[in-house]
Amino acid sequence: MKRLLLVFGLLTVLTAFIPKKELKWEAIGDSITYSNSHPEASQHRISVGYMDDVAKAIPYVQYNNHGYPGWTAKAMAENIEKIGIEKADVYSIFLGTNDWWVGLPIGTMTDYENATGNETVYGAYRTIINKIRSLNPDAKIILMTPLQRTEYVDLNNPKVYIQGQFKPKDGVYLSQYADATKAIAKAEHFELADLYYKSGINLKNAVHFRRLRDPKTGEYKDYKYPEYIGIPYNPETDVYPYPVEAMDMTYDGLHPSDKGHAVIAKMLVKIMKKF
Asked: Is residue 167 one of the residues assigned to a domain?
């Protein structure tokens, strides 16, 4: 018995030193995905992205970045044959926030089931997933819900402003896009990184404050959420409302800071370690 235990223990130790087989990962997404390895896009307010964080935690993961700023599920579906998606072990799809802002119709699960085309979120996801399955029918697929977001002002072009999720866009809430992503993941038994509901990134910690002029005095004041809702911002005359010290989970109200990317990566690492 002692000899058997010794042999078993030796095998366990030796197995621990066998290198893991490389796990190839194709990351599909929008500007949040793109920002990985592109710190210049944030004027170097970030230094890493969620893919770098995952690869650091799981060294045998090798990724390709297929992030495109401003892209919706429809744009991704329409271009999925052109962007060089390769055969891989794992695919992640991280979209939704642009879909909400441009008003891409969500559609229904029927659009997904019947592959009705790219004019709805459900239909576009079917196109993307069909492409993935054509490359590797056995691949693991991770769907990622959009992050919660507050008022966004583009760091590189402050004239670009987008309202926060605290009110609907064209009568639709960002959460409804997250719910559609969850529904597809459930129906297909895909892995889900539920960033919207479970990451802990929310309106309160997206930024520490917005620096805006007090409407009464004209003097700048740092307003926390929800105090800043409704206070006007004029990009022609006002300073950028998110100085470096305002950064928390995001650096501009939408795009994750290093801290935010680390949260995303932690959720993905938990999933990928099962593969």
From this structure: yes
Name the pTM for this structure: 0.92
Nearest CA-CA partner of 176 in 158, 203, 197: 197
What is the rounded end-to-end Cα distance, in angstroms, of the chain?
A: 34
Residues in the chain: 275
Rounded distance between C-alpha atoms, residue 259 and residue 88, angstroms:
28
Residue 222 counted as domain residue = no
Which residue do the tokens 């002002």 mark? 153
CA separation, residue 17 to residues 12, 20, 57 (Å)? 9, 9, 17
Q: What is the full per-residue pLDDT of the chain (275 aa) written as tens digits?
A: 555 445 444 444 444 456 678 999 999 999 999 999 999 999 999 999 999 999 999 999 999 999 999 999 999 999 999 999 999 999 999 999 999 999 999 999 999 999 999 999 999 999 999 999 999 999 999 999 999 999 999 999 999 999 999 999 999 999 999 999 999 999 999 999 999 999 999 999 999 999 999 999 999 999 999 999 999 999 999 999 999 999 999 999 999 999 999 999 999 999 999 99
In this structure, what CATH number is given to the domain that contains residue 83? 3.40.50.1110
Tell me how far apart the alpha carbons of residues 250 and 261 are, in angstroms, rounded to a whole number: 9
Query: Is there a contact between 166 and 151 (Cβ–Cβ < 8 Å)?
Result: no
Number of domains in the chain: 1
Helix axes 258-272, 50-57, angle to 10 degrees: 50
Q: Please choose, from the candidates 40, 70, 224, 67, the residue with its C-alpha nearest in 3D space to the C-alpha of residue 160.
A: 70
